[in-house]
Amino acid sequence: MDAFRVIEIKQSVYADNNAEADRLRGEMKNSKTFLLNLMSSPGSGKTTFLKRTIGELKNDLKIAVLEADIDSDVDARAVAEAGAEAVQLHTGGMCHLTAGMTRQGTETLDSENIDLVVIENIGNLICPAEFDTGAAANVMILSVPEGDDKPLKYPNMFSVCDVLLINKIDVQPYFDFNVDLCTERVRKLNPDIRIFTLSGKTGEGFSPWIQWLKNAVREWQVSDRIQENALMKTRH
Fold it and tell me: Is-above-0.85 flag for pTM?
């Protein structure tokens, strides 16, 4: 008889999270609330981008934001000032959100009949891609200063997203960032991904993104079918 056993803890963790994510996605569907998971590395301009998005949509949609951070409430205050209800989620050192954490955040929201809830996930390109949050769509921001080689270094993140936002396009002349090459690399990993180039600071290229998001929210609210979350592609 063997002196030890190997238990696949990792598989169990993912399975439990995926089941919880499916339940949450169904509940969000029933309440006609579109849950969007926004991911990026630190310094990508995520909060500035989110503030502009809220400003563009707040007259058309009722918006809330779940701000995930290891500590502090700086970002939550910023998005609240932009016109959205904000809940700060402190992860206690964890580098990602799970479906259970997301549920805790949604249950804390004061408002009813919310059209759009945005999860501003922890800033890194590895852990958040591994966990299904229960979102209807996964969106990633890649900023020009980060470089066009990021799809080669973090393929899983680019593979699980429905939308890629190439941000800070206003500073492209000052950086060695090839949009066409980046797009080619991303589409090899994820042929169906939608890609928008824009600037959260200046508003350049924002209209197509805003229109896509409006359409996605409305389709979610009227469709009887629960959309498949992109993170399901990598379920363990």
Answer: yes
Domain count, the chain: 1
Strands 85-90 and 63-69: parallel
Q: Report the CATH number at residue 134.
A: 3.40.50.300
Token representation of residue 137: 């769509």
Residue 212 CA to its chain's centroid (Å): 15
120 falls within a domain: yes
* Residue pLDDT, tens place only, 66-100: 988 755 566 778 888 888 898 888 766 667 789 99
CA gap 221, 225 in Å, rounded: 10
Any domain includes 9:
no
Give the pLDDT confidence of 172-226 residue by residue, as tens digits. Answer: 999 999 999 999 999 999 999 999 999 999 999 999 999 999 999 999 999 876 6
Domain span at residue 146? 15-224
